[in-house]
Specification:
mainly alpha
């Protein structure tokens, strides 16, 4: 966990505690005066929800970046397997591997096109 992740986690916890205390204070104010500052309540909760949203977007961007890095590393690992062979041979093997991976999908689509899948579902 990085320092930035710790900061965001602490920030979110602090905002949650602040909103809890703020809510309790607003209930006390209502009990004492019979009125609440509606605009203030809306502004505070709106600002905190905006901050929560921004933190969520930051986290999503970090996860997306991490996923892309993992994919790139995975692709580099696959390329490493084919480095010793000729370029043409490795390209053929990659195409064969891709075709083998999509073979069940092709079979399903051909069965669906021929109508075999609907008959199996009816039976």
């Amino acid at each position: 966990m990085t320092i930035k992740d710790d900061f965001i986690k602490k920030l979110l916890i602090a905002m949650f505690i602040f909103l809890s205390v703020f809510t309790i204070v607003m209930v006390v104010v209502f009990l004492l005066t019979g009125e609440t500052p509606d605009v203030l309540i809306g502004a505070v909760f709106g600002a905190c929800m905006g901050e929560y949203s921004i933190c969520g977007l930051i986290k999503r961007a970090k996860e997306k970046e991490k996923t892309e890095r993992l994919k790139e590393g995975y692709i580099e690992d696959i390329e490493f397997l084919f480095e010793d062979k000729d370029e043409e041979d490795s390209e053929e093997e990659i195409n064969d591997a891709v075709a083998a991976a999509f073979e069940p999908v092709d079979e399903y689509l051909s069965d669906a096109h021929e109508g075999d899948i609907e008959e199996e579902a009816i039976e």
